[in-house]
Structures are given as C-alpha cells and as structure tokens.
Specification:
Elements: H1 2-29, E1 44-47, E2 50-53, E3 58-64, E4 67-72, H2 78-88, E5 94-96, E6 101-104, H3 110-147, H4 152-185
Antiparallel strand pairs: 1-2, 3-4, 4-6, 5-6
C-alpha cells in the first residue's frame, strides 16, 4: 500500500515539473522587446505536404537585437516560409530579399508591453490550473487507497505532502510570471 502512495506522490512531483517546463516554453515565445529564435518556434511550414517547424527547413539566427534572419536550406521554401509567418499572426511582417527572410521587431509601446505581460500571466494561470488538476487527481487517488484500507493518518499526511508540492509549484509559477513581466516591461 505504501508503494502505491509513494508512486502517487512521485508522480505528482513529475507532472508538476512538466507543467513548469511547459510554462517556461510558452513564456519564451512571448517577445520581450528583443529578438529570440523562440518567437518563430511554433510556426510550421508546408514542406512537401508535411507541416514542418521553420527551424527544420531553415537556419534561424539573430542578426541584431531587433532582427531575426531566416535562411532556408532550399530557395524554393522562401515563399512558403513567408506565408507561414504571415498566417501565424505573430505581429511581424517578413521581408524577403530573395535569399533571406528578415523579421524586424519594432520597439514595443507601453500598451503592447502591458498586453504581453497580461498574456504571460494568462499562461501562468493555465499552468496553475494544470497544477491544481494534478493535485485534485492525486488526492482522489489517495482517498481511493484510504477506502481500500490505508490508515486515515497516513492518508492525511500524504494529502499534506501533495498540498505542499502544490504550494511550492504555484509559488514557482508566480515567480516565473513576475520575472517575465519584469523582462517585458524593461525598456
């Protein structure tokens, strides 16, 4: 019985770490005034009938603090990459010079910065919902074990441990969001 309980608690920690990892990836996609290759990570290009990430059909580099340069490995992919960037609605207009596609990031206005900060906190809320869902599922599993013969004291201790993990990960999510907000609002 204790093995099952340990597995539940270990699983809680692993799943909550995955929620934090997902949050970090999503936050990296929100631009903070400077160019990063992560801005184009979620964009897929039609490559011979398959949806393929841009970084698998081209070199994505940072030319300077406000410019992303994309050099396709095959010149015939220029148009497809350009269309995919426009369709992705990331707020950037691609400039195609026949060899490269350049994305120029305009300086962020105060209003735009606040919008990005709000989006970062929205991603944080999604992560918190995921963590709370993991907590709910694990507590239900503990209660089921209790019905199957686990003592009430051990069950309460396990629930307290799960709650401790939840509190720790929610504080971590808040910290990630505050750090991203600070990064976004820094001019």
């Amino acid at each position: 019985m204790n093995e099952e309980l340990e597995m539940i608690i270990d699983d809680v920690s692993v799943q909550m770490k995955k929620a934090i990892s997902h949050l970090e990836v999503e936050l990296s996609k929100i631009r903070a005034g400077k160019a990063t290759p992560a801005i184009v990570d979620g964009i897929h290009v039609d490559y011979y009938g398959n949806a393929t990430p841009i970084n698998q059909v081209a070199n994505v580099t940072i030319a300077d603090a406000r410019t992303i340069s994309i050099q396709p490995w095959e010149r015939n992919m220029l148009q497809a990459i350009e269309r995919a960037i426009i369709a992705s609605n990331i707020g950037l207009n691609p400039q195609n010079d026949g060899n490269y596609i350049r994305l120029f990031l305009p300086p962020l206005t105060e209003e735009r910065r606040k919008e990005f900060a709000k989006r970062a906190f929205g991603e944080g809320e999604h992560a918190k919902v995921a963590v709370r869902s993991i907590r709910r599922d694990s507590i239900e599993a503990i209660k089921k074990l209790q019905k199957d013969g686990l003592s009430e004291d051990i069950a309460k201790d396990a629930e307290a441990t799960v709650q401790g993990h939840t509190d720790k990960f929610i504080a971590l999510i808040d910290q990630h969001c505050k750090d991203k907000e600070k990064e976004i609002m820094t001019v």
